[in-house]
Amino acid sequence: MAAAMQGLMASRRFSLTYSKLLHGIFRRGYAQDELQFPSDINIEEEVLQRMEKENIKRRKHPGRFAQNKLLPLPTKLVDGVDIVMQKYGRKSTPEEAKKLDNSITGRHPPPEPEVLREKVSMINQKLDKKNKRDPSTMSEEERQTFLVNRKSKIQQILRHTTHLQKSIDYTGYNTIVYLLARVSKNYNIIRTCLSEIEKRDPGFLPSAVYNFGSGLGTAVWASNTVWGSAVKQYYCLDPATDMSTLARLLLQEGDEFKKMVIPGVFFRNKPPSHTSLPFPLVVSAFTLLEQPSKIKRLELIEHLWNMTSDYLVLIENGTYAGHTVIQEAKEWLLQSPFEPQSRTTADEEPHVFAPCPHDKKCPKFAIKDLKIACTFSASFEPLKQYKTDLNKLTTSYSYVIMKRGKVNTPDAKWPRIVQAMPQNDHHTHCRMCCHDASIRHYVVSKKKTMRPVYEIVRRSHWGDKIPIDLTDASTKGALYYSEEGVRYKGTQKSKKKKAKPKQTSKDSLLTNLMLDNSDQMEDIMEKWKEHFIPADSEGSGCQSESINLTEDSSDQEYTTDNLNSSVKFSRGDSVHQDNFIDPKKDSPT
User: Fold this and answer.
1) pTM for the whole thing?
2) How many percent of the chain have pLDDT more than 70?
3) Taking Cα atoms as reference points, which of 301, 337, 329, 308 lies closest to residue 404?
């Protein structure tokens, strides 16, 4: 018995060792041979010479733009948050903040009327097939009852199959919940994007910043951290009065009688006139998904582009919905014509500064069967009032930085790492977006890859650029996605699905009433108008108003009475939305 047991254990040890051996052979041999990094591609010579001359370590190579460490909030901002939370916070605020954060992260763009009409048509056809009675043979009373039941059924199906979501009300106590849920996250994301501009274009010093959808003013704090006193004016636009009031209160360290710690911040509820001087930097974070329709989104993008003279920064959630609207904005700017004066010279045409090393369509959209989003990761430290056991949280975001004129930086064509890199003992998987709008998957190994490439890639992170030139590199053996949808090594052919026969709609009385009559269609969707049309849609539009930032045109002084009354759920008169501050007192000298 003992001998049998020893023999069994020996055989298991042998099988385990044999499986490990086979796994090692596959991992170090076959996998690297199939996806091995091109042996003739090395780090750019100028970069290597500079790193050796300045004694720069591999982990600090010039392509390091990812935020792989915690970026603490400014001390004065933390002090202001503490005072505000002590005054307005509740015991249930942390739980409500987590729910609100999940709701914002999971948002989708509102469905277009054409999409809703098509879905209603499809639902109506399916219900017609199940219906055994013809409405034309019914009596008038039976027909009315039948139509009411049919509308109710269509509404129930739409509720479960369509992203119909209510607009978030950023007033009163909701602003406090939003503060706890998003201030640290938004600050880290915006600062990471702005830091890339500062690192890649060190000569760029914006004198003014236009922040559309300013919210809590995190873009103001991030811009001040990156460029300091170089920024003289901040034009903050947000239709939510209480949100702007709270943003100013944070700039005053929680005391409404103090001066703002960052001078030159102006809060408005209407955009400036197009005839005014453009802003060197325009930032819009987490506002595209809040627009009521695609037309409003494109109008907003056009307005923001017309307001900038150098850089436009657009940021959204790190989801497929957020990535979709970001790519929609990018393609609209690159392909659609605007005002004639904005396209007079090539120096004023839009180009992608980050994250893409090209001006083409996103290669991840070439995979039509899979919804893959191009996102990036950021770590942030939650507020102590958030009440979590973790000292570090991670979030994802999607962004694009557009620049007027060509991108002349040396790293313009460097490939960017667009996915987390699993690192094993002797090799690293690296997926990069390249200058030819392709995604390449290489295995960088210690034995088969040139030493500088291996050392730099091993010390890089998701979102970094690799200082190499892949212009003349072959795509053989790489995971290659192009606009034509070329797959791995070009050998796998996509399976063609059999086209389903088109369903012919019934020419019945119900179909005519439900689809051809616009009044009936509006009656059907009446209950969902508030789900995808914000309450203050006029404030989010692109209205123009000529405003002089150096003159005081306000009729009322700034006050936090409205915020106090709103938090206590006593609806009082709102603070005057046109001017929340006195520019004479806070304007820079």
Assistant:
1) 0.76
2) 71
3) 308
